[in-house]
Amino acid sequence: xxxxxxxxxxVSRGLIVAALAATLLSASSALAADPEPRFVPxxxxxxxxxxKPGFVDxxxxxxxxxPSAGGVLxxxxxxxxxxxxxxxxxxxxxxxxTLSVEEMGQAVRTAGRAxxxxxxxxxxxxxxSRPIVExxxxxxxxxxxxxAESPLKSLGFGLAMxxxxxxxxxxxxxDAQRLADVLNRLARNPASGSxxxxxxxxxxxxxxxxxxxxxxxxxxxxxxxEIRDARYFANFGDLKYQGVDVLTPFWVDxxxxxxxxxxxxxxxxxxxxxxxxxxxxxxxxxxSFYFGIDGKTQFRPIATRDQSWTLGRVARTxxxxxxxEVVRLAxxxxxxxxxxxxxxxxxxxxxxxxxxxxxxxxxxxxxAMQGETSLYPLTRDTTLFPADTEVGKLAxxxxxxxxxxxxxxxxxxxxxLPVDDLAALPLxxxxxxxxxxxxxxxxxxxxxxxxxxxxxxxxxxxVNLWQHRRGIVAGLAVVLxxxxxxxxxxVWRRR
Length: 495
Fold this sequence. Notes:
Blueprint: H1 13-19, H2 28-32, E1 39-41, H3 42-49, H4 55-65, H5 75-86, H6 90-93, E2 98-100, H7 101-113, E3 132-136, E4 153-156, E5 159-161, E6 164-165, H8 173-187, E7 198-203, E8 206-208, H9 211-220, E9 224-233, E10 239-241, E11 244-247, E12 251-258, E13 263-268, E14 270-279, E15 285-291, E16 297-301, E17 304-305, E18 313-318, H10 320-343, H11 358-370, H12 390-397, H13 410-415, H14 428-443, E19 447-449, E20 455-457, H15 476-483
Parallel strand pairs: 1-11, 2-12, 3-7
Antiparallel strand pairs: 4-5, 5-10, 6-17, 7-8, 9-14, 9-18, 10-11, 12-13, 14-15, 15-16, 19-20
Helix pairs in contact: 1-4, 4-5, 7-15, 8-10, 9-10, 10-11
């Protein structure tokens, strides 16, 4: 699943696999008792494979000795990881490394120095000398769906990597791709009264020149159209070991103190997206919208299924005029991100992290529709967004994590979980930590640990977590960049 799950890396994700060896949850004992586990911690995979000749050296080589091939850890970290593996310190391996939001930003900058910036070419695809470029919607496309055989790539040692096709969604992938392409091109039309070629779609004698006009047209011609505000744990490995899903999150250090433990709460980074579902006589498609590490802010087809541990939660569903408004906002965000990338062409990963992560673009929609956001973390540099535009104003109103020096917004951390009820979280150690943090949060007694050794009391003020429980996921792909330092543009195609 998650690619920003339904993660699909178009670069050497086999290298990410290794980078995540150290990040898994302390759930091995619970999973060991399950005769048919739905997933297995990567720490257990490493424990087994470390007995294989050459595996440890290959792992460390990919992690730290060849940045151009995906290395992410420095010499000291590689040394420590080797010691953990050879010393069979699996418990410590389970949460190594864990990064704060600030450290994630440092990792992105390191990654950017290791590779040349990729130009953003999304807008250029619509260039034309004609004043109007008109096309029929062209759905159904009649194109063949992705091949039914498994796209998993064998990595040896019993490991396989990749996204598995969803048997329900995959047959609609060509139509979903066409709809995504059309919406993205319509979003990049010049503003009314501005020069430039315009793209127009026709359907049954009617036409549309904006994303909102198209979805309204589909709705008026008998289609059910809705948008789901969805959140997941981000899957940065897409691994299977001997046919079983492998737990490959990355951890974010929230700075929040786990009551009674004297240590800071770390949670798997999460992914947020708005999912557009269209069902009707002509179009049947499922799309996701988010800003990915590939530097693209756009609608994307969903055709793969998520691994079981990524979970998933729909915070809210928009229909009718609210659905149309969300699509309008998404179109405005696409145009604004294109403008920001054009104004700052040297940003690493086309602005990923600097312009935000997947959460930031979705938080703008949530803020506009709900009056606040429940996403964490949010990382954009507000100076990159002009304050005199609609999207720029939203960007300036949103909180920023890891840049302002402000205490962690505990409400958003807790609201980012992809479950409605902590009892449904199938990760015992994390569940215990979160239950303790939630109780302290509601009582107003939660502590926050600074980056140094001093602890400071955070005044929570009686906010009820469960009033915001439908708020969402976070941390997301930020850490992916840390794992993928030096990797080429990487398309996160979520289910």
